[in-house]
Fold this protein.
Amino acid sequence: MLILVEQYGERDLCQVTGLLNMMQFMRHASAHLEDELAEPLTFMYFDIENFKSFNQRYGFQQGNRLLRYVADLLRETFEGNLVARFNDDHFAVATQREMPTDCIQFIHERIRVYDLGLPMEVKAGIYHPPPEVTDVALIMDRAKIACNSIKNTYDTMWAEFDPAMEEEINFRSHIIRSFQEAMIEGYIEVYYQPEIRAMTREICGFEALARWRDPVHGMISPGVFVPVLEDAHLSPQLDLYIIEQVCQDMVQTRRNIPDWELIRVSVNLSRTDFRLMDMVQAVEDVRLRFGVARSLLNIEVTEGAQSGDEKFLQGEIARFRAAGYEVWMDDFGSGYSSLNNVKDYVFDVLKIDMNFLRSFDTNPKSAVVIRSIVNLAKELGMHTLAEGVETEEQFAFLQEIGCEKVQGYLFSPPIPLTDAVAYCYGPAAKAKTEPFRLGSYYAKIGAINVLSNTPLERRGSPEIGDALAIAILEECDGSFKYLYQNHMFRLFLKSIELDEESVHTPHYERRLHQHQRMIACMMEEADHTGREVYTDFITRDSFNSVRLRLIARDEDDMRAVFLMATVNISRFSPEAGSMQEAMNQIVELYDRVDLYDLHKHRLTQLYCSASEPSFLNSFEPYETLVQRYAAEMILPEERKLFEQFCSEPHFTAILGGAESSADHTILLHKRMPDGTRVLRLHHLIPFRLEEHAYVICCIQTIDENVIGAALSALTETAAE
């Protein structure tokens, strides 16, 4: 035991906690280590997570009270050992216990329950110095390195120092020291990865990515140097450097290749950039210096950027969009607050994180989730791009569900400027470039939600109908071609013997000619009237209905695109709704998620589990659908409560802030077919989009045995 027998003055002790200060701790620890007969010591460095938030919430007086509480815990747990407060919320312990993990566990549990409003955690770094290491400053640095290695982790309370940690620290220091030189000498280069229009397989843009070719360490991964620069508050310099290089490359390429087709380039802004400088003005300054149009630069913001002061970030993103830039959410699905980000922020494009496609071939749930993300994005008026496409099977799936753009190694890895130019220009080009002027044209096509029963139902658009067989056609020079056919439409063509396998059947050419003539007449009428056109026709064994609408024309009036929906009416059955259920089920978390549109009084099913019946295959006002749902699914004594919860007055109240957060949630019982009942949580997420009011309703089955824990978790979520 390290028994301290001497008396200490006030200068030797921390005035807040009464523990030794750092200098006295180091003096006593050094004396012990120099004693050849003394037993070996284990050193620990403690850090209280969320202490800054605690101080901000409760004030410094309560913060000091928490520090004294932790000090008493350490003093009690390590009685007779060296215990000190170094600074702020950092403490140090030197003990003869070889592996004091049980003590750390005890302290962790006691601190975790200190404040139920904030998730208080304590992390510990452990270092066992060998006999030859007697420098206490070095010892505590290594314990601190171990502690920092587990910061922001949920389930790890302590870590032992490993020499590799120190190597990492040295490497991080090298990155910071060499950063300015790397930019000056051109060690940091811009690589470009093509963005492909799924419908045409043409290049519609590039993403600019930073690559660091270090003369000492070789190629440094951006996954390594970007977080280091973020932590050192150097990320704005990196991102502006990349934007400057992109603008310079654009100007130089146009100068070298006069007939070069303008191509949009997406540039990334780090999650810390917005706090460190005025990024809107900084990007504008770079753009103006090179004379690059705003429409040529897309601003990508990682999902992690939507943290901290939400209103500030919302305002900065709005400033970019108001200035004429498109703003994209990068890596959607990589964070824990994706749904909240979608409802709180206005983005033009949602980029689906590549991790979903990595498990595409092995995990069937990946396809379900990606389909649901695309459906949700389209319902909220956002375009979509999927990252990490590596196979033709993945690409075909993304085409089928209406994902507009793709990016990945199937087409090209990130490549230097010279290779990017050669990729899409010259006799050896691997892909055609989409004409710049057609960007808005294809954006209108991309707004079609082919996963919806109402594929053109988007903020003010009239409905096209309940049909699931969807096709997109482009007319040019008096003829037309299919840009998109979903699976149901291909089955429809097969049912009327107009698919590729029917080419050699009797009378195929006559049937094809009649079909083409019918569509041409419908296109002419839809173009002339501006209205949706209806036609019914009969084949040998079915009665079919076709609906068609003009979607867009290009700037030169040379081509037009139409949306066509078909229904084989004779094949309608009660089981037809299972397609929608299968298409929209989401991975185990919720039974169903519905979107209430208060402007149109419409209810849209975003997804539901396979066991959850759908009540939304009609165009009735949502009040009627709510009543029907209550009658069939809710216990009689709770129906009125459910109808009030899902009523327009209640929605209006929570949208206006008149209701508390507790009024966003209710527990009700679902009536099962066998007469039993199941408790379910109904949670409302209100938001506004382009001055229109929406409410998302999430329904989740709750185990009544753990209802207390569920409510506690919900309270924490609401507080965050």
About this structure: The longest helix spans residues 163-185. The domain at 584-719 is CATH 3.30.450 (Beta-Lactamase). The two ends are 44 Å apart (CA to CA).
